[in-house]
Automatic annotation (TrEMBL):
Pfam family, one: Lactamase_B
Organism of origin: Novosphingobium bradum
SMART domains, sorted: Lactamase_B
Residue ranges of every copy of the Metallo-beta-lactamase domain listed in the record: 35-207
Protein name: MBL fold metallo-hydrolase
PANTHER family in UniProt: ENDORIBONUCLEASE LACTB2 (PTHR23131)
Amino acid sequence: MDFPAQPWPTGRAEQLEPLVRRVLAPNPGPFTFTGTETYLVGAAGALAVIDPGPDDPAHLGALLEALGDAPVAAICCTHNHRDHSPAAALLAVATGAPVIGCAPLALTSAGPRGDAPFDPTYAPDHVLADGDSLSGPDWTLTAVATPGHTSNHLCFALEQSGALFTGDHVMGWSTSVVIPPDGDMAAYMASLDKLHSREDRVYYPAHGPQVDKPRQLVRGMIGHRRQRERQILRLLGTGEARIVELVPRMYKGLDERLHGAAGMSVLAHLVELEQRGTVERRDEVWMLLEG
């Protein structure tokens, strides 16, 4: 998907519906699109802030300006990649609000990444489990556990309007990156099935445009991943191969600078297939199992 024409609404509070405003952070990039989108939930009294974003003084200033004199009841994080959670601690100091949401997680990776690294400073005051809720004067947010992109990923359902804040699990501009060992393709697919079974009216992702036909998009994402899986099996059916050999055959025309990140996605599929007993590996070489 191409980037939209500038200027983008960076730093400006946009009213999306009566209970929801959005503020775009100034951190555009190949894996963040036009930037991280922070959501302010509530119209009267104490508000919730979802995915406060990166450690950026301009973004923090934009959030405080958008909040005005309104108190903050909760600062909620879908997961703690560095484009999502570092501003939580800064906003907590400025507002006195607790940080509530995903569990803390900090892993390092020596290989190429297709997303931001984890934020090791993330320290929530309270962790939400699947189905847990928090409320303000005119809003209730319910946590929907959606592991896959990360093992600690949560979405947040706004009960009053049928909106779902999907973080990086479902985005309108790109599929989510799944990078082992924490990223798990089987969990990701199960989470997609979980969302497809819901009746949410609209998705508000952390990157890219809102999703007005959520079940249709999720159905397409499930199909896309299964197509990739079939492609891997078809290629391995012609002979054993290493991931570096599969990537250019699967992602024809892809910028070679992105081959490492694509290889992580292929690895996630292969690990799932290995767990199902469909493929096996010997060192870096992958092959189909007979029968």
